[in-house]
Structures are given as structure tokens and as C-alpha cells.
Amino acid sequence: MIQNDLEKIREAALARLKAADRADIIDAIRVEFLGKKGSLTEILKSMKDVSKEDRPKVGQLVNDTRAAIEDALKERQKVIEEFMLQEKLKKEVIDVTLPASRRKIGHLHPNTVVLEELERIFIGMGYEVMEGPEIETDYYNFTALNIPEDHPAKDEQDTFYINGDILLRTQTSGTQVHAMEAGRMPIRMIAPGRVYRSDAVDATHSPTFHQVEGLVVDKGITFADLKGTLAEFAKQLFGEDTKVRFRPHHFPFTEPSAEMDVSCFKCGGSGCSFCKHEGWIEILGCGMVHPHVLEMSNIDPEEYSGFAFGVGLERIALLKYEIDDMRLLYENDIRFIEQF
After folding, report:
1. How far is it, in rounded angstroms, from Cα 328 to Cα 149?
2. Which residues, including other chains, have CB under 8 Å from residue 34's CB and lie 6 or more apart?
């Protein structure tokens, strides 16, 4: 009787496995026939009713049936796995004769391009590139630069104060003070970096932008050195035919002070819409370091003199690439960035 039941279980299992086409069906068949509540387990539970003489023979038949079903399960499992693999390979087939797709890689931002060019020019003239903290004290951002308490630049409408003495720097000139206080002479440095001012966002203003400040301090430095340095800088940046002119101005930390214009590199100075038909474009502020600024940094103005200048990095980028809206520099539109 049990022998007939085992044969029926074996045939049923093999028939079910032959038709199985998914891994989950294989698992269901395994549980149905070999699980704790499976058909073979039920047969084993009825072994107590088998005579002692027949138990070894029946036990062997049960083991043979189990082995046959397990072998069939493994075989069918291999067939299904091979089938699934072939289906996956068909879907993932690669035509090696097709041209490879181009991967987009990073592109230098116009600000970065201009900054690297400025650094190359000044490093070529013997300058050192220095960095300073973006979070500064009132002393380094204002007082040490000869900016008095009642100066408009210290108004909270223009400066982001963290507390009464700590602020987000409004200029990178503070880095120059740190360099002068170090006392290592002579000083020939530029200080590029991000600065912050409470400005409304429009085509020419932003609450955060970049400056490049320059400083030279040594014995015998004159305004002629300043003019010659900046004239060479302008020629290397905008072309050998570039001319410069200096107009009197006022900055608290320099005396005398000036603003420098360059001849329009688009029309050569003859006048066009780019330079508003003036032939000149304002580009930076400069001047001789104020003696009081030197004194506050423990430098004897009777022995040393120097000049300083500051240029907006975004302004150079806007002029050099004829960009009419500063906001384009910060929108991260890849179509715009890829042009530079």
C-alpha cells in the first residue's frame, strides 16, 4: 500500500517539475512534497503502522523517492536558471560595432578660467597667492584698513554682521593686513576670494561675489611701480594694444588713490556700444598704501611704502566674455558654462 503511495508521489512530483517554468514554482513543489507537512512527511508518520520486518524496506523506498524528487528539483532548477540567464543576456546584449556614447565631463566655470589667468599673470611677476578667512573681525575688515567707525561701509545695510565684532568679510583686503602683520618683507601678494555684501540681486550686483586684492610693500615703492604693474597686467589680460589711464579717486586705505580704466578691447578705444562710446572701461581701484595702514601693521612708513589694488573677478569675466547679466554666472546652466 505504502509502496503504491510512494510511486504516486514520485510520479506527481516529477510531472509537476517537468511543467515548472519559474523558481517560485520549484520552491512550492519542494514544500508540497518534501516540506514538514509534505506528502513524504505524511508517509513517514504512518511508518508506525508498518511491521518491523517491512520497515527497512519501506524506509529505503521513502529515501529513494526523496532522492529522486531532490535530483529532479536540482535538475529543473538548473534548467530554469540557465533559461533566465540567456533571457537576461539577450536583453543586455551590446553591439560592439556601435560608436560609444560620449560621457559629459566637468567644465571650468568662467570665474575659474579668469581667476587662473589672473593668478598666472601675477605669479609670473613674482607674486604669491594667499588666502584669508571669510569670517573676519571688524578690526581686520575695517579698522586696520583705516576705515573709521562712522564710515558708510560699516552700515549694517551693507555688511552681514554675525555679532558686534564678527562679520562676513566685505573685501579680501583683510588678508593683506594679515600678511603685513606677519612682517616678512618684501610683500608681493594677491588675495583672491569670496566676499559678502548686503546687495539686492540684479544684472550687476549679488550678495556674494569674488574679489582679487593685490599688495606690494617694499623699500622705495612708488606710484610709477603701481602704474607699470597694472599696465602690464592689463596687456596680458586684454591684449598687447591695451592702454590704461588713471583717474583720481578716494579709498580710506590708500593715498593717493585712483581708479584705472582700460581702452576698450572691442573697438580699440574708438568708441562703441560696449564701452558706451567712451573708448574706456573702468576695471579696478588702486593706490599707494596709506601710511597709517602701514603703522597699524607695525611697518615703518618712513622705511617702507607700497601699493594696493582690487578687482572684481565677476567684472573681469563679464567684460572678457561680453556677458550682460551677472546672474548667468550662478545659474549653473550647462549650456551657458560649456561656452567657455
Report:
1. 36
2. 40, 41, 66, 69, 70
| DSSP letter assigned to residue 277 | T
> How do strand 244-251 and strand 187-196 relate by DSSP bridges?
unpaired
The string of pLDDT tens digits covering residues 99-120 is 877 777 778 899 999 999 999 9
Cell numbers for 333, please give them. 546652466
- The H or E element containing residue 109 is none
The answer to whether 254 touches 287, Cβ cutoff 8 Å, is yes
CA distance 70 to 210: 74
Contact status, residue 167 vs residue 197, Cβ threshold 8 Å: no
pLDDT digits (tens, 9 = 90+) for 205-255: 889 999 999 999 999 999 999 999 999 999 999 989 899 999 999 999 999
Q: What are the grid coordinates assigned to 322, written together? A: 561680453
Amino acid identity of residue 135, one-letter, is I
- Residue given cell 532548477 in the structure block: 77
Q: Are 144 and 293 in contact (CB under 8 A)?
A: yes
Distance set, CA 77 to CA 15, 28, 88, 215, 308 (Å): 14, 12, 16, 78, 80
The end-to-end CA distance of the chain, in Å, is 89
Among residues 212, 198, 78, 200, the alpha carbon closest in space to that of 132 is found at 212
With cell 583686503, the residue in question is 173
Cell 529532479, residue located:
72
Residue 148 carries which DSSP code? -
